[in-house]
Design goal:
2 helices, two-stranded antiparallel sheet, Alpha-Beta Plaits, two-stranded antiparallel ribbon
Amino acid sequence: MTSKKKRKPVVDRAMCAACGECAETCPRIAITIRNGIHAVVDYSQCVGCGACAAVCPASAISMKMEAE
């Protein structure tokens, strides 16, 4: 049996400026800004498109591969 891999965004909380660009860009509304401190991804809604990582001005979001 082969495992299916999926990309997922990972937020570096130390680098996140909580600007909200990722949340505004996400087509699935899977990202929120928690307490004005950092971005949080709802992986049950995320489709791994990478739009959030592409717009992050602080480069705080990276796309990682994860086995399903």
